[in-house]
Structure formats: C-alpha cells, structure tokens
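Sample entry (262 residues):
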Amino acid sequence: MDLGIAGRWALVGGASKGLGLGCAQALVREGVNVLVVARGDQVLQQAAEQLRAQAQLGAQVQALACDITTVQGRQAIFGLRRDFDIVVTNAGGPPPGDFRSWDRQTWIDAIDANMLTPIELIKATVDGMAARGFGRIVNITSSSVKAPIDILGLSNGARSGLTGFVAGLARSDLAAQGVTINNLLPGAFDTDRLRATQAVAAAKLGKGIEEVVATRRQAIAARRFGTAEEFGEVCAFLCSAQAAYMTGQNILLDGGAYPGTF
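Predicted structure, serialized as tokens:
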C-alpha cells in the first residue's frame, strides 16, 4: 500500500535505537524525509547511515544530536528546520522504582520529559501543519497509560497527563484542518528499556532476570515481545493519508497482554 506521504518531512525523537529508530525506518521506506534526533551523537550517526541505506524514493536523512527535552535542544531542532508534516514525539522513559524514593525534582523531570516536551513540540509545529492542510503527530507513550505498572509510577503519571491533554486538542478545530494527533502505547518490546525495567522487577522480587522475563512473556497472548520494526509500521500507518479520519486515539500494541474489553 502506498501511504501517500512520500516527500513529506518528519521529526522523530529518540531515533538512534529502539522504537524511535523503528518509526524512522518505516517512514524512510515510504519516501519520507526525516530529521532524527537523540542525545548520543555516535549511535545517532550510525542510525542515520542505516536509515540512508534503507531510504526509498529519494528520501533525505538529517541527524541532530541534542536533548529534545530541553529548551536548547528544541531550539537547535527548529533552527535546522522549522516546518514538519509529521512529528513523532519520543523521549526516554523515567526510571522505574519505588515512589517513596522520588523527590519533587524527580517528578518535575519526568513530567518535563514525557508530558511537557511533547506538548512543546506540538505547539511549535501544529499551526504550520494546519495552514498547509496536512499534519500527523504521533506520541509514543506506554501501555502503562491503560494498565499502570507499579514500578513505573513516574511514567504512569506523566504519560497519563499527556494523554488527557491530547484527548482535548485532537478534537479541536485542528481535525478539520487535516491535522491528526494520536498516541501509540507500546507494551513489552525487545528494547533496552524493557531489559532495564525487567532487571528492576527481578531485584524487587528477589528472582533471576531470566525467570522474570519468562513470566512476562507468558503473560502476553502472542507469547513473545514485540519488535521495533513492527511498531514502526503501525506508526507509519498513523502518519499516512489513509489515516486521515483517525484522531485522538490511543493505539495499544502489546501482543494481547491487556486483559480488558475497552
């Protein structure tokens, strides 16, 4: 299927590895030009070379090492390119742990990275999208928005705040101007983030990490963890011309782990 987005420009956060890289890969294969950002320059440049090798239809790949969660990082991004047709917001999740050990600054950092940063990126790009009559914003959040995880309290709180904000904004007049805003909620994907949280869970339970990982896998109907590549394909569809009537949605990708009806 031709997704109808070749030649568009996309900003993809956290794109040096994991789910962000998976999204960038799917977009460049559709001929989308991408600006990929991440904090680590060496890994990011390696990812950019990989993306250039996969790009189709003459898609361009630019890479900028910066911290997207800071004012300075966002200024660097928009100093390089002002307008984007597609924005995939993605920043590293806050650390797992026990809420009793988190002070106020820890909470502020989590909210700043996983709620306020996406809002700032939306604010900086959405009016230009509306003026051009096309825009796709995809926020990578977490399955913990639907099914909170006890050791991920910082993520549960910050990402739920973003979800509430998006629910209202997506249903504003932006929808009539061709701009959609959706959230992608990853469950257990085979990433560095998953391995880190499983290590914390193992320590908390006093079990070996292999046992904890096996138990987590068995709780998934698909009996496996997801891949960044398949996550990226869903992201690319949400960015497509065909997805113009889908906005304000929370798309859960968890292999059937969530047990609820709604």
